[in-house]
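SEVERITY: medium
COMPONENT: batch folding queue
REPORTER: lab tech (J.R.)

DESCRIPTION
The queue accepted two submissions in a row. Attaching both inputs and their returned structure tokens so the on-call engineer can compare them side by side.

ATTACHMENT 1
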Amino acid sequence: MKPFVRELLITIGIAVLIFIGARQTIQTYEVFQTSMEPNFHEGQRVVVSKAAYFFSEPKRGDVIVFRSPEVPYEDFIKRVIGIPGDTVEIKNGFVYVDGVALNEPYIAQAPVYTMVPETIPEGEYFVLGDNRNYSNDSHRGWLVPETNIHGKAWLSTWPPSLWGVVPHYALGDQIATASTAAN
């Protein structure tokens, strides 16, 4: 085999492997609704890391993309608020996790609705949109099965004015700090 042909085949093989690897670990997502404003806007594009949860579980504060539990062909983007074992409640304009009111500087406005305490079962996640009062999310009675999660929002790629790493908030630290202070 001539050196040129061999080099060409090796290059094509490497390109195919890189393509397959990328398809298995990342995907792009376009935001279609206003439920995550002011942080994500309709038409904005984000890169989702499918690999983020290969070796760990979603954490409170992560922004995830998942298949809707209500409409199987639709994907949503929301923020994880409750993980398995948490008790989530919404009252007086605050979201409470395990009795701790969350400090949420990223939301559009405080929720004007209430929700009775709900304990999140194993393998399920409680998610809310950052635009709390205009979001179809877990406060409406559904949870996200772990098997529906595509991955963690990682990079904003469009429009150029919003390029950058997607900010995530360590909500679990707030709960841990409050629990430590109470003891």
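ATTACHMENT 2
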Amino acid sequence: MSKAWVGVDAGKGQHWALVIDVEGQTLRSRPVANDQTAISELLAEVSGLAEELVWAVDLSNGCSALLLALLWANHQQVVYVPGRAVNRAADGYPREGKTDARVIADQARLRRDFAPLAPTPELVADLRVLTGYRQDLTGDRTRMVTRLRQHLTAIFPALERALDFTHLGPLVLVTRWQTPQAIRQAGAEVITAWLRAHHVPKAAMLARTALAAAEQQTVRLPAEQLTAQVSAELAGELLALRRRVKELDKLLRTRLAAHPQAAILTSLPGMGVLLAAEFAVAVKDLANFASPDHLAAYAGLAPVPHDSDRRVNNLHRPHRYNRDLLRVFYVSALIAAQRPGASRHYYQRKRREGKHHIQAVLALARRRVNVLWALLRDNRPCTLTPPATPSTT
């Protein structure tokens, strides 16, 4: 047999592998434990079924990491079948037994537009771990801030309205004082001195703000003391989380510095260390993209036509694109549009042309794809003035 496809429905404890031939007939279908011995046995078992094997997986990391590592170590072809493609195609298959693995294998057999998977460089893998962990921490911080606000609203709504708990000072304040009575008893001088001892900027202004909020409420609300204790604990946990994020940012900055084009990425206005690391994780190697248009399409910034007999020039974002890469270009464009320079001029020009804010930022993001692609291709950092073109005389 010349060719066969192996569809793998990846799971945490075990995978399900299904092998089909060129006619779509099932050759093997069985579970395989997510450990090295079991996967190696599966490789030996299916290797004799065809001269050429194509493995198709629906996950490119996480629980499929060991499987992919063993496949690459044995020089196997691997393609990635996105979950969206699996879900859409699944309705066309009979619900008999294990369906997902068959859908994955059959889609890889029928379609030629799925991207091949290649081993991730060690540096990019490290950056992926660090950026993913940072996203988890910032998500935890957002949820904890929401809970803190809910507790303070229940006992001291004026203070909750007056302070921004994404900043250091309000969190330090709430670890010590949480009720209007406690703030009035302490007074502005004591609060200011305590905040300064904890290196809080603008301590006097923060103390006056807290005292003004305390003057607006004299009544005690139910469960005030217990809620105040919980609020203080939440504020302390948020401070610890802030320190963890700062330490992680230092590690991320150090690891990104090892990237050969880190200085070029961070030279683009609006592209900080975090966004540069996320770009490196999403793109991996610029050689995978033949042109800036290809990179823009991967980022979802190249609209595709959805025309019909009555509607023309009906452009929409494609369904298949890298959402993390879109976020990198959108956020960096949003930051650059707020600073003096060429990006801000371009954004303002788009607004004058009648585009609303999001449209103008997306247009700027698309333009920045071209700029960054050219900088990386030429291996030169972004400068305020373009490089001189060589004379043709």
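NOTES FROM REPORTER
Residues 3-110 form a domain with the Nucleotidyltransferase; domain 5 fold (CATH 3.30.420.40).
No errors were logged for either attachment.
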